[in-house]
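Internal ticket #5521
Category: modeling
Description: The requester needs a full-assembly model to guide mutagenesis choices. All entity lines are attached below as received. Residue total reported by intake: 223.
Assigned to: D.W.
Attached entities:
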Amino acid sequence: ILNVEQSPQSLHVQEGDSTNFTCSFPSSNFYALHWYRWETAKSPEALFVMTLNGDEKKKGRISATLNTKEGYSYLYIKGSQPEDSATYLCALNNDYKLSFGAGTTVTVRA
Amino acid sequence: NAGVTQTPKFQVLKTGQSMTLQCAQDMNHNSMYWYRQDPGMGLRLIYYSASEGTTDKGEVPNGYNVSRLNKREFSLRLESAAPSQTSVYFCANRLAGSIHEQFFGPGTRLTVL
């Protein structure tokens, strides 16, 4: 099981503001990094799967970057909306398994 | 297509009782997983099945057993439930390969009294 750390644990952001948060992992054990979005009372849903150092992925107002050499990934939310309120999970792929971080819970205030 | 289905959605057990959580998928994916989710701890892997006919322990396997009945179905059994097993359980599947995302079922909320 790989040690995946996410920070901060939670954050509040005003509607319209942008925000970002971090996923850190041991850089020597890297196959792929996954980001999932998890809304309350629902199941996690995949946002991005990233494999290459320098990878940047974007889906609407949400984007992510990956630095495998230093062992981190950032997730950005531009112009936050109430529907962005969710827990964002990062997971590191190791063979057949994913090791999940504890998540960053984002609350967007209207 | 239903994707990943789990039954039951909710269950209350008494300490010492046994039960099986069912998971089925219609996505024809090779790998299936069982996780538990507890507050502040994210998702922890209980058991997984990389392909039909194989099962392996994850991070927190104690107190659980699994059966990969066929490619579609992967069940999780609690032989003697304990209050520490109160949690939300998620089943997931994935096409084999690191670039592929996992797909999650709706979850089973289990309370052990």
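Resolution: model delivered.
Comment from assignee: Residues 45 and 59 of chain B are 5 Å apart (CA to CA).
Ticket closed.
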